[in-house]
Amino acid sequence: MWQRVFHLMLKEFLALLKDPASRAVLVLPPIIQTIIFGYAATLDLSHIRYGVYAEDRAAPARELLARFAGSPTFTQRVHLDSLEQGRALIDRGELLLVVHIGPRFSERLLRHRPAPVQVIIDGRNSNTAVIAQGYVHEIVDRFNARWIAEHAGWQPPLAHLVIRAWFNPNLESRWFIIPGIIGLLLQVVAMLVAGLSIARERESGTFDQLLVAPVRPFEILLGKALPGFLVGLAEGTLIVLIAVLWFQIPLVGRLAVLYAGMALFLFATIGVGLAISSLAVTMQQGLLGAFLFMVPSVLLSGFATPIANMPVIVQYLTLLNPLRYFMDILRGVFLEDASLHLLVGQFWPLLVIGLVNLAMAGWMFRHRLH
Amino acid sequence: MIKTSALGWVNRMQRLQGLLRKEFLQIVRDPSSIAIAFVMPMVLLLLFGYGVSLNARNVPVALVIDQPSGVAADFAGSFRQSEYLSVVQLPNMHVGKRALRAHRVDAVIHLRSQFAREVQAGRSAPIQVLLNGVDANTARIIRGYIEGSLSRWLQQRAERQGQQAARPVMLASRIWFNANVRSRNYLVPGLIAVIMTLIGAMLTALVVAREWERGTMEALMVTPVTIGEVLLGKLLPYFLLGMGGMATSVAMALWLFDVPLRGSVWVLFAVSAVFMLAALGMGLLISVSSRSQFVAGQAAIVSTFLPAFLLSGFIFDIHSMTGPIRLLTYLVPARYFVSFLQTGFLAGDVWPVIFVDVSALAIMAAILLGITLRRSRKRLD
């Protein structure tokens, strides 16, 4: 039996790799994507373009503005002559925010009276706006702490926070996103290799030949599943290497746990891919089916937006999504050194999803014939 | 002379009509195209509109109080009022750290035994906060919530003692265009760009690659139709499908998700039409350049869908990307469309923005369609 499976697998690999274009499509995009998206997909802001409308040029106002200029994120400053000008530039998307310091700012501060500073932020992308607002708050908080310490007459606040972030001390969103990209790209590869294999045979009419050959449906299934599995493992390794060597993402957990998770995820994804593949009549349907599965699966995986923010019903829906579990495994192993014990809850659903889908694909195999 | 050219026109229109009829029949017979044009936008918009949000609520937070006191109880009471935090009290830091490790809470707030004494002495007591920083963005949002709760508590305490919790600089920040920072308001318009990229580029790339793969394209070529007519015959039906998907999405954005449309509808549809042409051009170019559906499918995902998702400014801020990547975004049609959509929906008709975006899209459409035409001529030789 293994010999037959081996030959089927060989044939599958040949079909996949004999065409130089499809060979390139399997190897190059994951590398390019990991690098491009690794750089692009960050929620941290940098190079913030901001405008300053200062009606007060005295020392305290200059000191506050110097804090903006000294920050590595606020890099491009525009001096404004009026608030109107700032509004127009925000409208046109040329400035993310405008800082307005009123005429009596320094005077009020020196008289121990609170001095207001107005900030207007472009909210078209509200997440960016909230993050920028956070940065502005940080700068002003530091200015305040310094001012209280250096000038008599101000009371320090009764309590202050000493914050420490575990697993990602500098809160770099890249550490969160890049392990996620591994899951994203592996899913694309495994789904395409598995999801198209049966549809391709059906479209070119070789599927019937395969069925009259002296192999059992189970063996065909295995021969179809294994290439995707092996290609997936190889690409996964490549992307993990890029993440660690190129992007310097810490990999604090154990490789064995990572690979156990990767194998189970590939098993589940290929199961889904084969199930879709066995339902599709044409290659186009196979591709579209794979796509109709992949897009929601990425959205509901916690890749970019946390599952905890979703409505409860949608949260339950995510339990059917293999990528959701793999995201937890990836981030757990990369950043938290999560043990096998801590990830059991992620491992067994992947196994169940894979088994159910493979059974379904096998059943479809036998029954689509008649 | 005039007569023959008029006759030529009639012939040409007839041929085009025939091609269009064939294309429509093909679309109707394989319902997957219609599924991707109408079902996909709806599913995606429902998922995004209802499911995806960056606004965290009821964040589980542990509170550890080393020594109970009136001040600590007051603090705890104030934190419990927060609509964003869901506070559980844990007996000691050991349990607190374990809960953080097991993801049962996202943060641990620790009041040490000197807390009450320091507060009463006015010495600015340190409050230790441990965050799970894996998801940096969420961690930052949670940090903001905790800071907000703390300053509210300080305010309350000061007011009760008849003082003002005055800080030197009082920041008044306003977020324009989306004062309540509803993430839906920018995700839904951005999603329209992703959906139209899907319909335009993915669908045409696959459909036309199939014709090449099956050899039916060559069959078409031996008939008297010109290559331009074949492409036009492909372009028109999918253009209509795409605009249909677009109209569905806009209707859902406005009436289901209450996203405001501050610009005009006509401008919205005009710019969308230009974008649709660029997306279709991209899809046709991919299909002409690749020999098989497998390659076309992969190429379409890699060069259209993922960039539209990640490099368009839809979620990730373009200005924060590193230089070379930022330059790369100028080549992504969706970038201009996302910029236009977010402005058109939330800010209104800002002509300088519209002008730049439309010109870029028009140039791209022209180039992509031009190359497609040349390439498909060459392929025949």
Automatic annotation (TrEMBL), chain A:
GO annotations of cellular component type: plasma membrane
Entry-linked PROSITE patterns: ABC_TM2
TM annotation in the entry: 21-41, 176-199, 226-249, 255-276, 288-317, 347-365
Any Pfam family matching the protein: ABC2_membrane_3
Subcellular location: Cell membrane
Entry's Gene Ontology molecular function annotations: ABC-type transporter activity
Ranges of residues in domain ABC transmembrane type-2: 143-368
Keyword Transmembrane: yes
Superkingdom of source: Bacteria
InterPro entries: ABC-2_transporter_component, ABC2_TM, ABC2_TM_bact-type
Keywords on record: Cell membrane, Membrane, Transmembrane, Transmembrane helix, Transport
Topology versus the membrane: Multi-pass membrane protein
Record carries keyword Transmembrane helix: yes
Similarity annotation: Belongs to the ABC-2 integral membrane protein family.
Protein name: ABC transmembrane type-2 domain-containing protein
From TrEMBL, chain B:
Superkingdom of this protein's organism: Bacteria
One Pfam match: ABC2_membrane_3
Keywords: Cell membrane, Membrane, Transmembrane, Transmembrane helix, Transport
Protein's cellular compartments: Cell membrane
A GO cellular component annotation in the UniProt record: plasma membrane
Topology versus the membrane: Multi-pass membrane protein
Transmembrane feature ranges: 34-52, 186-209, 235-257, 264-288, 294-316, 328-347, 353-373
Record-annotated ABC transmembrane type-2 domain positions: 151-379
GO molecular function, one term: ABC-type transporter activity
Family statement: Belongs to the ABC-2 integral membrane protein family.
Protein name per the record: ABC transporter, inner membrane subunit
Upper lineage: Bacteria, Pseudomonadati, Pseudomonadota, Gammaproteobacteria, Chromatiales
